[in-house]
Specification:
Strand order of the largest sheet: 6-5-4-3-2-1-8-7
Number of helices: 11
Structural class: alpha/beta
Radius of gyration: 18 Å
Strand content: 5-15%
Order of helices and strands: EHEHEHEHEHEHHEHHEHH
Helix content: 25-40%
Bound molecules: pterin-6-yl-methyl-monophosphate
Number of strands: 8
Shape: globular
Largest sheet: 8 strands, parallel
Length: 299
């Protein structure tokens, strides 16, 4: 399958699936809550992810795990701004993961170059206008409601058709608010108001997503459906979040092979290697053969 190519202003075209590394500056995210709450540690983490092959570092200050309660805007700003500024100053391409217009705009002023809104502009009525003013690419993720009640909202007749229809409606809404259509990135929102079978069906339907003609972001990393797949056969207990990275890399590289523009992951190294392997296979080694080869090295 030929890889769709997309020009997003201010964002390079890597010629392969991009890798977005996650820095959650939160005490309560589902798999890494509290680890990067200190701004200095969060910046170091972002720099490490970039060194390991992240093309983009996604900085978020509010957990969206099922059942999470919201933080204040002031607190969210306090968490993310120093981290966005420091990473951007060091040349990292930063996306800001927020549902709030003011956080998005302030983060772009501080150097963020993509706005990643898990609500696709639905949570804050000012978001689409703010995203339009910033002029940076805007992620429209499929979303039905706040995390505190999103599990109740998971009901579909045909999950792929329903989710795509709802995302298309939201794309129209943000474009009506002034977002340039060429700046829209779409995301099926794995785990957000989805049952596990919904997540698998969405991952199996990436062709329908790329057919929207927009870059597709896929964020399977460490999510519940992977933990349930890998449940302990003896106890039935889901695999803990921190032990889902091999499954994440597998899901991510398969998404890459089916045309995902980017994959969003907590641990970057394996996925960064895997998307390079995928690109090398797709190009029959052309990308690799352009690199200098040292004679006699076969191991
Ligand atoms: N998932 C989470 C947070 N941000 N952004 C996008 N675009 N897509 C997602 O699926 C997504 C996201 C929740 O995961 P985390 O709490 O581990 O970051």
């Amino acid at each position: 399958m030929k890889r769709p190519s997309h020009e997003l202003p201010g964002v390079p075209e890597w010629g392969r699936c991009a890798v977005m590394g996650i820095v959650n500056v939160t005490p309560d995210s589902f798999s890494d809550g509290g680890r990067w709450l200190d701004p200095g540690r969060a910046v170091d983490r972002g720099l490490l992810l970039a060194e390991q092959g992240a093309d983009i570092v996604d900085v978020g200050g509010e957990s969206t795990r099922p059942g999470a309660t919201r933080v204040s805007e002031e607190e969210e700003l306090r968490r993310v701004l120093p981290v966005v500024r420091a990473l951007a100053d060091r040349g990292v391409l930063v996306s800001i993961d927020t549902m709030r217009a003011r956080v998005a705009e302030t983060a772009v002023e501080a150097g963020a170059r993509i706005v990643n809104d898990v609500s696709g502009g639905r949570a804050d009525p000012g978001m689409a206008h703010a995203a339009a003013r910033t002029g940076v690419p805007f992620v429209v993720m499929h979303w039905r409601g706040q995390s505190a009640r999103m599990d109740e909202l998971a009901g579909y007749e045909d999950v792929v058709a329903d989710v795509i229809r709802e995302v298309e409606r939201q794309m129209d809404a943000v474009v009506s608010a002034g977002v340039d259509p060429s700046q829209v990135i779409v995301d099926p929102g794995l785990g957000f108001a989805k049952r596990r079978q919904d997540d698998w069906a969405l991952l199996a339907s990436l062709e329908a997503w790329t057919a929207l003609g927009r870059p597709v972001l896929v964020a399977a990393s460490r999510k519940r459906f992977l933990g349930e797949l890998l449940a302990d056969p003896a106890t039935g207990e889901a695999r803990p979040a921190g032990s889902r990275d091999a499954a994440t890399a597998a899901a991510s590289v398969l998404a890459a092979a089916r045309g995902a523009w980017a994959v969003r992951v907590h641990e970057v190294r394996d996925t960064a290697d895997a998307v390079r392997v995928e690109a090398a296979i797709r190009s029959r080694g052309a990308a690799v053969l352009r690199q200098p080869v040292t004679a006699g090295t076969s191991s």
